[in-house]
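Same chain as my last thread, 164 residues:
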Amino acid sequence: MPNEDSIYSELDQFDKKILEVLSEDGRISITDLAARVGLSKTPCQLRFRKLINEGYIEGFKAILNPSKMQLDHIAFVEVKLSNTREDALKSFNDAVKKIREVDECHMIAGRFDYLLKIRTRDIGRYRRVLGERISTLPHVASTSTNVAMETVKESWGKAASSLA
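reply #2:
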């Protein structure tokens, strides 16, 4: 399995620094980005576009505050399927993407098949989502819930600092 250094080997120090800065502030101007990474504006802009075109940057979005939106309740749901053939997996994948409260969905190699991160306003709403939406997804055999008591760290953006 390739290590982090080999994965990013085609990126030089400037590209890595651009990604690091953008992961912290996606709204930074090209002029300010160039100054932060030690390039002039035009080369920085060319590198920025190249990183987008090559898929290192998939897009930009607003990071919403879940507390302000009353989405403080986080549950992690372990999902075991009754069937793990490719057509069953596709059916589950397509259906789970349609559930608004599913923040993340990961296929897992282990004692269960999927791990879902669910955000709701409270335990009552979570219970309804579990009973009415998640448990009725295609091929779901069983679920097990773990409720988060506190979020200590949550962000991919901050992880990009290890690229430099």
